[in-house]
Amino acid sequence: MTKNHDSDVAFIKALAELLNENDLTELHVKREYGDDDCLNVRVSKQTNVVAAVAAAPVAAPAAAVASAPASAPAVVSEDPSDHPGAVPSPVVGTAYMAAEPGAANFVSVGSKVTEGDTLMIIEAMKTMNHIPSPASGTVKRILITDGDAVEYGQPLMIIE
């Protein structure tokens, strides 16, 4: 680490501002000052993709409630992660709905699955992870598309 700590702190603060201003989740920078003297910085922020995805659908039902009669029941949040049949991603990676390009998807909406059936594959660090069904039932919703980047805990589909 370089001995010029004040300028390094200012540099790191500038990176954090750049991260926020450009809606980035991570920056990695290596500054080399000379032989055996460098600053290696990784600035990241934890994001909850589920909350960002869930925020949009909640706005539309709220408008419907405002125009509904006072006796209408309250609208319940449609956050997929709250659903008891939600299948969360066990890893961060890229989701694939089929075993290989051009092959049939493992499941589709309406598919009957039994516990342990492969629902999809998530590639993480060059490893193909088969995602098993946690329970038997019917696939009601698929919340991602083939090739999507997924986060840990992000709901992938709903099985009832």
From TrEMBL:
Full protein name: Biotin carboxyl carrier protein of acetyl-CoA carboxylase
Entry-linked Pfam families: Biotin_lipoyl (PF00364)
InterPro entries linked: AcCoA_biotinCC, Biotin_BS, Biotin_Carboxyl_Carrier/Decarb, Biotin_lipoyl, Single_hybrid_motif
UniProt keyword list: Biotin, Fatty acid biosynthesis, Fatty acid metabolism, Lipid biosynthesis, Lipid metabolism
Highest classification ranks of the organism: Bacteria, Pseudomonadati, Pseudomonadota, Alphaproteobacteria, Rhodobacterales
Domain spans labelled Lipoyl-binding: 84-160
Pathway connected to this protein: Lipid metabolism; fatty acid biosynthesis
Function: This protein is a component of the acetyl coenzyme A carboxylase complex; first, biotin carboxylase catalyzes the carboxylation of the carrier protein and then the transcarboxylase transfers the carboxyl group to form malonyl-CoA.
GO BP annotations, alphabetical order: fatty acid biosynthetic process
Lipid biosynthesis in keyword set: yes
GO molecular function: acetyl-CoA carboxylase activity
One Gene Ontology cellular component annotation held by this UniProt entry: acetyl-CoA carboxylase complex
